[in-house]
Amino acid sequence: MPSWSRLARNIARKALFTVVSQMRTSGSQAPTQTRKSRRNSMPSDGSQPRPLGAHSIREVDLSEGLAHTSYDPDPDGDADPGEVVWTWVPYEEDASRGKDRPVVVIGRSTKSGTHGVYVAQLTSKDHDRDARWEASQGRHWMDVGTGKWDSRGRPSEVRLDRVLWVAHDEVRREGATLKRQIFERVINGMRTVDSNR
């Protein structure tokens, strides 16, 4: 059973994400900055503001993403389940900022009129050393090894507790394909996290 603080944190995070996404969709703008203030406020963490038109990226319930899983990679230039692709991923704490990163496509959207995919983010940061702390914050990671999505050949981890829905036109390129066995481990890990919430 989740702790009250974790539940409150998850609700607040999703509410903030929804409000910021709605502001962006409705055309609301952040206050404009001067060139000097913009230069002085550039983050040193490599984050980037939400790309213009990137309103077709949203966080969804884990159960929604898991309801659409399949393994169907196809090197046709489109994002297909089982593939690692690149897209802009919003930060949880500030959905107006994010980072271009690799993601694992776990499924396709099957709703009429929507053409998108469900994805889970990858990182080359090793969370093994701080796994207990990450789990206490509601974040769960699984090693997936190396792949062509990382030009330096670093081992990667996939986040098991966060799923995003991304419109097809927000995906920039294919990076590689996960082996079926690894993909199935990822999906099983996500199902375990979902059942323990």
Structure, briefly:
Helix content is 28%, strand content 27%. With 197 residues, it is of the alpha+beta class. Strands 1, 2, 3, 4, 5, 6, 7, 8 and 9 form a nine-stranded antiparallel sheet that branches.
Description:
With 197 residues, the protein is an alpha+beta fold. The protein has helices spanning 4-25, 35-40, 62-66, 131-136, 180-195, and strands at residues 48-49, 57-60, 83-90, 97-108, 116-123, 141-145, 156-159, 163-167, 173-177. Strands 1, 2, 3, 4, 5, 6, 7, 8 and 9 form a nine-stranded antiparallel β-sheet that branches. Strand 4 and strand 5 (116-123) form a beta hairpin.
Strand and helix layout:
Elements: H1 4-25, H2 35-40, E1 48-49, E2 57-60, H3 62-66, E3 83-90, E4 97-108, E5 116-123, H4 131-136, E6 141-145, E7 156-159, E8 163-167, E9 173-177, H5 180-195
Antiparallel strand pairs: 1-4, 2-8, 3-4, 3-9, 4-5, 5-7, 5-8, 6-7
Overview features:
alpha+beta; nine-stranded antiparallel β-sheet; 5 helices; 28% helix; globular
* Proportion in helices: 25-40%
Q: Let me know the largest β-sheet.
A: 9 strands, antiparallel
**Beta-strand share of residues:** 25-35%
* Broad CATH class: Mainly Beta
Mean pLDDT: 79
Query: What Rg do the Cα atoms give?
Result: 17 Å
Bulk shape: globular
CATH architectural category:
Roll
Structural class: alpha+beta
How many β-strand runs?
Answer: 9
Number of domains: 1
User: Unreliable segments (pLDDT under 50, ≥5 consecutive)?
Assistant: 19-44
Instruction: Please give the alpha-carbon distance between the first and last residues.
Output: 6 Å
Which sequence of SSEs, written as H and E, runs from N to C?
HHEEHEEEHEEEEH
CATH structural fold name:
SH3 type barrels
**Total number of helices:** 5
